[in-house]
Amino acid sequence: MRSSSISAWLAGALVCASLLPAASRAQDSGTVLMLSETAEVERTPQEVSATLRAEARGADSRTVQAQVNSRMTAALAAARAVQGVQASTGGYWTTRQEKERTWLASQSLTLRGTEPGPLLELAGALQGQGLVMDGMGWSLSRTQRLEARQEAGRLAVEALRARAEAVAQQLGLQVAELRELRLDAPDNGTPRFRAAPMMAARAEAAPPPVSAPQPEMVSATAEASFLLRR
Questions:
Q1: Is pTM beyond 0.70 here?
Q2: If you average pLDDT over every residue of the chain, what do you get?
Q3: What region, left, alpha or beta, does residue 3 occupy, with left being phi > 0 and alpha being psi -120 to 50 degrees?
Q4: Which of 39, 50, 163, 193 could form a cystine bridge with 135, CB 3.0-4.6 A?
């Protein structure tokens, strides 16, 4: 009887010994706070682009394709003669229009640059040569976008830290450490194109198109978990 009482007392003591450290660890672990903040910065795009297309229509497929080829060759030569303008060709297609019983051929040309004046002058000259304007747009340069993303990320992290300290103070706690941090700054690098009115295929001395940049917002989102303690 005495042996069983001693065994029961030892078992109880072991249970208490195992529970006390666990309770102490739970008390010291603190409170985990998870937050998310998004910051935005505004930048005015520096790169302008214009997309034009050469078209030809006629009864013979070889003739219309030869006309498109000739116009595109001349357009590329004119673009390469303008300093600071980058030119690239796009899709080329030829189709038979059964209702009109004619062939239609078309190829696009995209102009890009950081100086709007020469580029828009060139676009106007190409319109005068018979190319049709499909659209114009502005976009942030690579350097602009990188700097804007870094700035937005810095602001998001600062806002996140300030909010964590405010919440901790509200709870009567302090921010002990930053456990995890995730920073997401999406790269929306697609130029914003505006539709441009079509010009007559044989417009003479076409005036250059007009385009003005619109400020663009670059955002970054920071998500983190903080450890709060008394």
A1: no
A2: 84
A3: alpha
A4: 193
